[in-house]
Structures
1.
Amino acid sequence: GAGVSQSPSNKVTEKGKDVELRCDPISGHTALYWYRQSLGQGLEFLIYFQGNSAPDKSGLPSDRFSAERTGGSVSTLTIQRTQQEDSAVYLCASSWRVAVTEAFFGQGTRLTVV
Amino acid sequence: ILNVEQSPQSLHVQEGDSTNFTCSFPSSNFYALHWYRWETAKSPEALFVMTLNGDEKKKGRISATLNTKEGYSYLYIKGSQPEDSATYLCAFMTGYSTLTFGKGTMLLVSP
């Protein structure tokens, strides 16, 4: 596609359930980022993939969060045993070359844990 | 943990006013500084990517400057219009880190 695509756009889940959020980056982009924005907060870094290098997972808030990027393209962010504090907008972004080119963002997934 | 500070937190101006925001970042190990505009119900969109000390970038009525030695960047909007209303984010990167965003400056331009 022409841009970064995220699915689902909205997800309501019960506390304790697992959720998977998907990101399709722009074709050819080697860098992929996951961020989240909780209510009233800024963009919080979660995880970063760059080519075939080991991902930077330093932003993942707990071991309930994990992410993978298959074939250097599609990425899935998984949250296990969701908690109410996981409610946020989860944004994915991709870029050609990290830092020196702009990042293109998807529309985000709004996750609500009830 | 990298600290990226943006000020002011929010700003309300009248149509036609010029305004500017500040982004402060660590001055060591600088690699790049990005500015994004985030309109309500949309995705953040890049305005500028700046990599060199002294860089000045311009896009229409919006411009930005960069001082890597002292660790700050300014974003200027000349003659603000209601459609400029958005949150303006800066993001900083060292050679060893990912993009770290500030909390943004929320701009409201009234007609």
2.
Amino acid sequence: DQQVKQNSPSLSVQEGRISILNCDYTNSMFDYFLWYKKYPAEGPTFLISISSIKDKNEDGRFTVFLNKSAKHLSLHIVPSQPGDSAVYFCAAEDIQGAQKLVFGQGTRLTINP
Amino acid sequence: DSGVTQTPKHLITATGQRVTLRCSPRSGDLSVYWYQQSLDQGLQFLIQYYNGEERAKGNILERFSAQQFPDLHSELNLSSLELGDSALYFCASSMRTSGVGTGELFFGEGSRLTVL
């Protein structure tokens, strides 16, 4: 049972434009959401997070939006840069429960010059 | 550099064999998590330890076991290896002091296991 889904395995965006990565979840108990970025031959690195009490969190070029009613979150990167090319993982957690961080399958983002 | 160290980086072995993957968490982190990433899959949670005690279990096979030692390093033991065990195994640590929840995890570079 895939509780966190990233339905787009890959995304290609032109440099300078906006990149939008999407993530859906099924478990209504999830109350904390994170995005991780992974370069080849490296471990995932934390990018940005959002608590379920918020609907938006912004950090520089990165903004995460949460729509609880739709059980959907998205990561916006603007403007996109070549260094943003990586695999992005969405993750979710039920902090109060014993459930651990659950990851999606990842979306490979390619920024074209 | 996340501060989480995993060894070995690469490991090639045969079916039926046993291997041990090692992880040193970031200084001060009490929680260690193990994740498996198979080809084109997301990261699957295996097991968590907090200050030496098992805290949570995910989809970890009975052939796999783990432990966290008093110095907080952790080892993941994989036995009776099968072809399907070939994957990237990530260790992560967390600064959460209660051991409840996960929040931000700091990942190592992973150990790539190839079973032939």
